[in-house]
Design brief:
The chain is of the alpha/beta class and 506 residues long. 39% of the residues lie in helices and 19% in strands. The protein contains 18 helices and 22 strands. The chain has helices at residues 55-70, 79-95, 97-108, 112-130, 133-136, 172-184, 201-209, 224-231, 245-258, 280-291, 293-296, 312-324, 344-360, 392-395, 411-418, 434-443, 475-479, 496-505; strands at residues 20-23, 26-29, 35-40, 45-51, 141-143, 150-157, 160-164, 187-191, 217-219, 238-242, 262-265, 271-274, 304-308, 363-366, 382-385, 402-408, 428-430, 450-451, 462-463, 469-470, 472-473, 483-490. Helix 2 packs antiparallel against helix 6 (172-184), helix 2 crosses helix 7 and helix 4 packs parallel to helix 6 (172-184). The longest helix is centred in the N-terminal third of the chain and has 19 residues, at 112-130. The protein binds NADPH dihydro-nicotinamide-adenine-dinucleotide phosphate (NDP).
């Protein structure tokens, strides 16, 4: 077996084997002996480990967050007073960017260009939410329609939030929850995914250096079952989750039972509709970012390409040559486009999908199997042609470096195919006609659509429909999940007395 990455890459990093959780402003040793390994997917070797939280650890963290919320040191500040902390966290993250990126790459095999980008993006997310302080504290006074008086609308923090993130983007998907929670005045307990528990510690370092008070941000590491204990803890006021649809459903059921608000950012099976006039050369330049970002482990990417019959072979050739010529290899190299998939379980899942594709009649025009003769969880970047809508790979989220190309007859057929997955997260339209592209985007039943590329925008809401989730993150709309509205009704001085008399007469 050839080693694609040298096994000693973790030596220079500050966090490898740790035995503590971050609770009430200090790193506290776990109260139990159980540990979970951290494995480098590029080698298959374990290079770190973290404690699997006990019920006592979880209760301590939840209690610390509850106390910090109730004693008001954070919630009692105005959003404008909290904003500078977020700006300082952003600066402190940037100072730690390289160590954060390397740790993240060793945890999940994301190419280093991706994880360096994640560190920068995390800082940007904190800056973005700092700019929304005026929205939270605006003077929002609304008249009664009948002239009875006026109502002051307050945006209070919702309380203690449990934040649960997956392994594909462990930093950004956590920070997308943490930053709005903080600016709103909430306190949090975070649980990263088991494969990626270490990189998030740099965010805590940054928060500590920025002077965030004890108890406002807490972190426990542990299995999914421990996440469930957090969700069901009596101190929880809100849950924010990104991950798979089955676990999302399970968490939603628990939150429904307990009547706690929940936001869920779940899986997807998004489509890129290539209109007959599309510029395929331009499409090639954004293809990987739009359809196979992070070795295909990105929730919103358009992993089903819908091509018009007349240009089907041309689209297959362009996609095949773009994917086949992108570099796969050591994720620590700046020019690597495809690394390994993040975990052994994910590797086995993706290989099972490839077997099903072969058995059901799809044709791999490049890739199609595990990368032979190498250590770690490398799967060849794969393009599947001759895929039909009923095939398993056309219907289910694969979450690996696999693209399927389907044929459509006319635009109505393309839209029907795109909307027929049960999911509704992302999507893309490729066309040289902006009006036609927008008209197709308007008919796609999904939370976001990109025209000739895809990227998410911190200023705009991001979320899924149907099996892709509930609620949104980002934009002003994303803040609402962390707010509890309070309406304070009062009589206006000029008319109040009369109305009071009228009201009491009735
Ligand atoms: P999961 O949904 O299993 O895990 C996501 C997070 O939830 C992890 O932190 C996990 O912890 C935690 N968790 C698991 N079970 C529970 C529970 N009962 N209560 C509370 N928290 C829980 O996703 P996976 O990471 O296993 O990925 C599986 C599939 O999910 C992928 O193949 C992909 O299809 C999809 N996925 C979608 C993502 C997206 O961005 N939309 C991101 C990641 C995955 P732990 O890791 O310890 O189990």
């Amino acid at each position: 077996m050839t080693a694609i990455m040298s096994p000693d890459r973790a030596q220079a990093l500050p966090y490898t084997h740790v035995d503590d959780h971050y609770i009430d402003g200090v790193w506290l040793k776990s109260t139990g002996p159980d540990r979970n390994p951290v494995t480098n997917p590029a080698t298959g070797q374990t290079w770190g480990s973290v404690p699997d939280a006990t019920e006592e650890d979880i209760d301590r963290a939840m209690t610390a967050a509850d106390r910090a919320f109730r004693t008001g040191g954070w919630a009692g500040r105005t959003p404008s007073e909290r904003a500078p902390y977020l700006l300082r966290i952003a600066e402190e993250i940037e100072k730690r960017g390289e160590s954060l990126a390397m740790t993240n790459t060793l945890e999940n095999g994301s190419p280093i260009s991706e994880t360096r980008g994640a560190a920068k993006n995390a800082a940007e997310i904190f800056r973005h939410f700092a700019t929304l302080a005026p929205y939270l504290e605006q003077d929002d006074v609304r008249a009664f329609p009948n002239g009875l008086g006026e109502t002051v609308v307050r945006r209070d923090p919702v309380g203690v939030c449990v934040l649960i993130a997956p392994w594909n983007f462990p930093i950004n998907l956590m920070v997308a929850k943490l930053a709005p929670a903080l600016i709103s005045g909430c306190t949090v307990v975070m649980k990263p995914a088991s494969p990626t528990p270490l990189s998030i510690r740099f965010i805590l370092e940054a928060a500590e250096a920025a002077g965030i008070p004890p108890g406002v941000i807490n972190l426990v590491t542990g299995s999914g079952q421990k996440g469930e204990l957090m969700v069901k803890h009596p101190a929880v006021a809100k849950v924010a989750f990104t991950g798979s649809t089955p676990v999302g459903r399970h968490i939603a059921a628990a939150c429904g039972e307990l009547l706690r608000p929940v936001t869920l950012e779940l899986g997807g099976k998004s489509s890129a509709i290539v209109l007959p006039d599309a510029d395929l050369e331009a499409m090639s330049s954004v293809l990987i970012r739009t359809c196979m970002r992070n070795t295909g482990q990105t929730c919103y990417i358009s992993t089903r390409i819908l091509a018009p019959e007349a240009r089907y072979r041309e689209v297959v050739e362009m996609v095949t040559s773009t994917i086949a010529t992108a570099k796969q290899g050591d994720p620590m190299q700046e020019d690597t486009v495809f690394g390994p998939v993040a975990t052994k379980a994910q590797y086995e899942t993706v290989l099972r999908y490839l077997e099903s594709a072969h058995a059901e009649g799809a044709t791999a025009t490049t890739g199609g199997k595990a990368l032979p003769g190498v250590e770690g969880y490398f799967i060849q970047p794969t393009v599947l042609a001759d895929v039909t809508p009923e095939m398993t790979v056309a219907r289910e989220e694969i979450f690996g470096p696999v693209l399927s190309i389907l044929k459509y007859t006319d635009v109505d057929d393309a839209i029907r195919l795109a909307n027929n997955t049960g999911f509704g997260l992302g999507g893309t339209v490729f066309s040289t006609d902006p009006t036609a592209a927008l008209a197709v985007a308007d008919r796609m039943d999904t939370g976001s659509v990109g025209l000739n590329f895809f990227a998410s925008n911190h200023n705009a809401p991001f979320g899924g429909r149907h099996d892709s989730g509930l609620g949104v993150e980002f934009g002003i709309e994303g803040l609402n999940a962390y707010i509890s509205y309070k309406s304070i009704h009062r009589k206006t001085s000029s008319t109040g007395q009369n109305h009071q008399i009228k009201a009491s007469t009735r």
